């Protein structure tokens, strides 16, 4: 036994109290989930990764995660109506990163609620324009729009903090 291991030095352990573990990150990548009904979503989450599932709707419990900073719905089956509630939930307005890559979006969601957004990814969707991008926070440092149907660059002027812009595999002329 290493020095200090299993000696019961902790006051909480010595008093027979259990110290609750705070869950900050929940990674449900490639679980093939159709919904989150069987999943416990801890209210302490700062990161939620739902990449590579079969989700067609956004679970309303996500709207009750005030500490959430990173959210990924990459590779799901979400359309515009399915993601719309995300952009109305005040409790998650502190999001810094939202990934909606590889879904079924036709238009850019109104992300104006996320005032401190740093990463916005809507690559591999069915977006036909950048219309609505002006509502995305000027704090964004990384914008991903590759593999859509975007014919021209527009509504990019206000991104003064932008460090990375990905527009590859679009219809830009």
Automatic annotation (TrEMBL):
InterPro entries per the UniProt record, alphabetical: LRR_dom_sf (IPR032675)
Name of the protein this chain belongs to: Uncharacterized protein
Alphabetical keyword list: Leucine-rich repeat, Repeat
PANTHER family to which the protein is assigned, alphabetical: CILIA- AND FLAGELLA-ASSOCIATED PROTEIN 410-RELATED, LEUCINE RICH REPEAT PROTEIN
């Amino acid at each position: 036994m290493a020095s200090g291991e299993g000696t019961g030095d902790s006051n909480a352990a010595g008093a027979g109290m259990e110290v609750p573990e705070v869950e900050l990150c929940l990674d449900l990548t490639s679980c093939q989930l159709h919904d989150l009904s069987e999943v416990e979503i801890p209210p302490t989450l700062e990161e939620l990764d739902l990449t590579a599932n079969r989700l067609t709707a956004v679970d309303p419990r996500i709207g009750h995660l005030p500490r959430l900073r990173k959210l990924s719905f990459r590779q799901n089956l979400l359309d515009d109506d399915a993601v719309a509630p995300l952009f109305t939930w005040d409790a998650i307005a502190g999001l810094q990163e939202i990934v909606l890559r590889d879904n079924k979006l036709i238009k850019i969601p109104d992300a104006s609620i996320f005032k401190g957004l740093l990463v916005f990814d809507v690559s591999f969707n069915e977006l036909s324009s950048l219309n609505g991008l002006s509502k995305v926070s000027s704090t964004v440092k990384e914008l991903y729009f590759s593999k859509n149907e975007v014919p021209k660059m527009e509504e990019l002027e206000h991104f003064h903090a932008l460090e990375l812009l990905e527009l590859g595999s679009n219809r830009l002329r």
